[in-house]
Amino acid sequence: MSSILQSIASRYSPYSFTEKPVSQEDLNTLFEAARRAPSSYNEQPWRFIYATRDDTESYNRMLDTLVDVNREWARTAPVLMLSVARKRSDVTGNDNPYWFHDTGMAVSNLLVQGGEMGIQCHQMGGYDRDKARELLDIPAGFEPVAMMALGYPGDVQKRSLEIQERAKQKSTRHEVRSIVCQGSWKLDRE
Ligand SMILES: Cc1cc2nc3c(=O)[nH]c(=O)nc-3n(C[C@H](O)[C@H](O)[C@H](O)COP(=O)(O)O)c2cc1C
Hints:
Blueprint: H1 6-9, H2 24-35, E1 46-52, H3 56-64, H4 68-74, E2 79-86, H5 99-116, E3 120-124, H6 129-135, E4 142-151, H7 161-168
Antiparallel strand pairs: 1-2, 2-4, 3-4
Bound molecules: flavin mononucleotide (FMN).
Flavin mononucleotide binds near residues 12, 13, 123, 125 and 126.
């Protein structure tokens, strides 16, 4: 079996980041990678809102949307970001059944590209969607998807013991044989 890409193998969700900012040029590269993702009818439902730490007001607004337990470590990230998706399809006039899927693919591109550049991303579902909608001026027809903390991974020993414990938990994965079957559903091995 050939080996998987290094940026996929070494990707993880850090609980601590260094002070080093992510340059605008590097952020643009990440967005370029996201933009290239495939999507149903090429509708590209993804949008991104981000704030860098030097823009204190915008950064704190995003930080404010997080649940406490996420805010504690995410505030060390130089960049906070929210993926947002357009739910409606211009092609069918109905809800696009792939809005969530396609937006996740764009985020995945961003993560893999980031990994190549030494930038890691910790995604978060733990935030207040209504607050995000209001504070970040998200218009009707668009849905907040996932919050992200991005940057260069830092020393987790600088975080609280609780966070250190969480970071220590092993990030396990299902075996390929329990998620893949050939021909038809034969996943009775779990
Ligand atoms: C959509 C989504 C929501 C997540 N929400 C949170 C969260 O609120 N807080 C958190 O600490 N981690 C969150 N995570 C990170 C996952 O817990 C993490 O990806 C998983 O445990 C695997 O670990 P790894 O990314 O280090 O491989 C989230 C990940 C995704 C993709």
